[in-house]
Design a protein that fits this description.
alpha+beta, Sulfite Oxidase, Chain A, domain 2, 8-stranded mixed sheet, disordered N terminus, binds the ligand Nc1nc2c(c(=O)[nH]1)N[C@H]1C(S)=C(S)[C@@H](COP(=O)(O)O)O[C@H]1N2, binds molybdenum atom
Length: about 325
């Protein structure tokens, strides 16, 4: 990965309305709890109203990020992508993925669990109310965005299948189908793209299985119909278009770690003090801004997640 392409165009800032649906008391309580504990914005989204929400864009409502960072415009999030299954050109992914068909998608969840099963997108929607989470995303290449995701906590899915005590890690796989993902005809990476988390990272309340953004379904280029979002880690941990989740005992292989182990570790926690061998990680370029801003430890989520890594040398476990 490198950051050779620096688009100079400035996108027109769009304001967006995300309308919360009718909430149950439990969903409201959860949202309030997340705001208090995690200083992140959450909001339940009524998926049935997404069409209406999309058409109301531009009326002046803005989802607030408690860290006061402005949202990255949808046009930028959806036209500056890393998704090598479609293209290695960040500006080319949206077009290359435009016809990607996700109808009939199934997510297989198995391995060291009591109740292995397959989930349709409808099954997933029934697990928990879809929440909105405004998260910063920091790519290992040194650029960042602020994205209003919609999704359900990964913990909710894992609770549903009941991990066995032996399960220590969670492995993820992207769809492997070169007829639908033309980049898989090349050998730029080993396919399928795989990722992994320690079980406690996977269970953390900030870890999201995203099905939408900006109050609508995920565009194909951002990982439709379902992708992982782990806001304190570099963007490459956020595996897209997931078809398989496996609970395992040993730390699983991950695509970028296999590709370049000295450059991309398993943990990949955002860390301004540990440089990439070929560039500094001390600062980042927020898409849409001039200049650079400092990169924060754990991407600004240290208060929530630093305790997961107590006693670990973060320079070794990068
Ligand atoms: N399957 C798959 N998932 C992937 C990638 C990829 O190439 N293939 N790229 C990763 C990288 S490097 C980043 S920064 C994010 C980008 O997500 P976005 O395009 O939605 O911003 O997706 C991650 N997930
Ligand atoms: Mo990335």
């Amino acid at each position: 990965m490198n950051d050779e392409v620096t688009p100079r165009r400035v996108y027109l800032a769009r304001r967006t309305l995300i309308r919360g649906g009718v909430l149950g008391a439990a969903a409201v309580a959860t949202a309030v709890l997340y705001r208090k504990l995690n200083r992140v914005s959450t909001r339940s989204v009524d998926t049935k109203s997404l069409g209406a929400v999309a058409s109301m864009e531009g009326r002046g409502f803005r989802v607030e990020d408690p860290v006061k960072d402005a949202l990255t415009p949808l046009a930028s999030i959806a036209h500056y992508n890393n998704f090598y299954e479609f293209s290695t050109s960040k500006e080319g992914v949206a077009d290359a993925a435009a016809g990607f068909v996700t109808a009939g998608w199934k997510l297989d969840v198995s391995g060291l669990v009591e109740r292995a099963r397959e989930f349709t997108m409808d099954d997933l929607a029934k697990l928990a109310p879809v929440e909105e989470r405004v998260y910063r995303m920091r790519c290992v290449e040194g650029w960042s965005m602020v994205i209003p995701w919609a999704g359900i906590p990964l913990a909710r899915l894992l609770e549903e299948v009941r991990p066995l005590p032996r399960a220590k890690f969670v492995a993820f796989e992207t769809l492997h189908d070169a007829a639908r993902m033309p980049g898989q005809k090349t050998s730029v990476l080993q396919w399928p793209y795989t990722e992994g988390l320690r079980l406690d990272e996977a269970m953390h309340p900030l870890t999201l299985l995203a099905t939408g953004m900006y109050g609508r379904e995920l565009p194909p280029q951002d990982g439709a119909p379902i992708r992982l979002v782990v806001p304190w880690k570099y963007g490459f941990k956020g595996i897209k278009s997931i078809v398989k989740v496996t609970l395992v005992e040993e730390q699983p292989d991950t695509t970028w770690n296999l590709q370049a182990p000295r450059e991309y570790g398993f943990y990949a926690n955002v860390n301004p003090d540990v440089d990439h061998p070929r560039w500094s990680q001390a600062t980042e370029r927020r898409i849409g801004e001039m200049g650079r801003r400092p990169t924060l430890p754990f991407n600004g989520y240290a208060e929530e997640v630093a305790s997961l890594y107590k006693g670990m040398n973060l320079a070794d476990h990068f």
